[in-house]
Specification:
heterodimer; A: 129 residues; mainly alpha; Helix Hairpins; 5 helices; 0% strand; elongated; B: 301 residues; 70% helix
């Protein structure tokens, strides 16, 4: 048990990401409010970025920005740059998707005057225009 | 807990849930209530509400299961900060050791995403472009989709002539605006030497434009940045980026000399294609961020 807990402490960033991901997933799938669904979606995005950046970190090494140009940079000095780059790309995509989804919510609100999915579904069943 | 505090707590929860408790006048409340569908208390809706309660219970169970499973996975993943992890393989070693010689960029992450993985980053810029186009299609106000009611609401929200008379805000924004523009350009132009790059610099620049528009009204932004210029900048930036990319990828994949001068690493004018791409992406992102704000708040640029 203490072994498990110490491993969990070593993996604390990924564990935090798991908690965030589950809160986001709950809100994305089971909350009837469309805006809260989107907030949950962004929380899930944040969790993924946290997991990726923590996967690229190496104890005792620095960010991959070279300041000393006299010698060839050594692998022993810098952390892994690949997950950082992937996160950079992911953030832009998440901003785009969030903006697009929010625009759709605005249009839905204009048609049904509510952001609650259950009310919208009731209206749709009745064929209310 | 005394009644007034409870009211306040309830009001806060209502506000979080998006109820219209904050409507300013009784007329506004009535106007908003009129728009609500009349069948809100029908049997159908009750059935949905009951279903929702069950739904929440199942959801909580599902998410706790998911959390337990993912925690088990996390405990068995490679340990945090361990240099012998499988992610730290020959690919990252190559990027670090030969990154400067091959891309000329001191910021190895910037060099990586804008030269080794430039195709991926171009896809990302295209996603942003597409999202901006879709938001424009969905939210832009024109004669066909605007009723007089929309216009009245826009006026009653004070959005149509959004000028803030507050002297503190105006002075603060006037002090802050040059700094934010300067930092935006700095982050964009030094993306190959220091942390930052096109997207972060563009966001700062776009944030400055939003501040300006919020304080001095969107008319004053329209003096130097209108919809025509927005489309022009968006399209031209992405097109130049695409042309640079095609040249770079074509010469590289055919083993040709691409004649791109890498410069001396550490100088401002260095790193070949990375600085121009950073600037192009920065302008595109600044336009897009401001366009998102303008379209969501007023429906026009």
């Amino acid at each position: 048990m203490s072994d498990f807990l110490s491993t969990l402490w070593t993996q604390r960033y990924m564990f935090t990401a798991v908690i965030l991901f589950c809160i986001g997933a709950f809100s994305l799938v089971f909350n009837p409010n469309l805006i809260k669904k989107l907030i949950g979606f962004d929380l899930m995005d944040g969790a993924i970025y946290m997991m990726l950046t923590s996967a690229g970190y190496i104890e005792g090494r620095i960010a991959p920005i070279v300041t000393d140009f006299s010698a060839t940079p050594s692998v022993e000095t810098y952390i892994n740059p690949i997950p950082t780059g992937l996160v950079l790309t992911g953030i832009v995509v998440s901003v785009s998707v969030t903006a697009f989804a929010l625009a759709l919510v605005v249009r839905i609100y204009k048609k049904y005057h509510t952001v609650y999915l259950d009310v919208i579904m009731a209206s749709m069943k009745k064929g209310v225009d | 807990m005394n009644p007034s505090n409870r009211n306040r707590v309830k009001a806060f929860f209502d506000w979080v849930d998006g109820e219209e408790w904050c409507a300013k006048t009784p007329d506004e409340v009535v106007a908003r209530q009129e728009k609500k569908p009349a069948h809100r208390s029908s049997n159908d809706l009750d059935a949905y509400r009951r279903f929702r309660r069950l739904n929440q219970a199942v959801g909580a169970l599902f998410c706790i299961t998911l959390a337990v499973v993912l925690t088990m996975v996390v405990v068995n993943l490679p340990l945090f900060g361990d240099p012998s992890n499988p992610t730290n393989n020959e690919v990252s070693a190559r990027y670090i050791e030969r990154g400067i010689a091959e891309t000329g960029s001191a910021n190895l992450v910037g060099g990586m995403i804008l030269s080794y993985r430039v195709f991926d980053t171009f896809g990302e810029s295209s996603v942003l472009f597409l999202a901006a186009t879709c938001v424009t299609i969905l939210l832009r106000r024109d004669r066909k989709n605007t009723t007089s009611r929309d216009l009245r609401e826009l006026h009653s929200d004070g959005l149509a002539d959004r000028k803030d008379k507050d002297i503190v805000l105006r002075t603060a924004v006037l002090l802050l605006l040059p700094v934010s523009v300067m930092v935006g350009f700095y982050v964009m132009l030094f993306g190959h030497l220091s942390p930052g790059g096109g997207f972060s610099g563009g966001s700062i620049l776009g944030g400055g434009m939003i501040l300006y528009s919020r304080t001095f009204g969107s008319d004053s932004v329209r003096k130097f940045f209108n919809e025509h210029l927005y489309h022009l900048v968006k399209v031209v930036c992405l097109m130049c980026y695409g042309l640079i990319l095609i040249y770079y990828v074509f010469t590289g994949s055919n083993g040709l000399d691409n004649h791109i001068w890498l410069g001396i690493p550490g100088n401002i004018i260095s790193s070949g294609i990375i600085m121009p791409i950073n600037v192009l992406v920065g302008f595109e992102v600044a336009c897009t961020i401001y366009a998102f704000y303008a379209l969501f708040s007023e429906g026009e640029m």
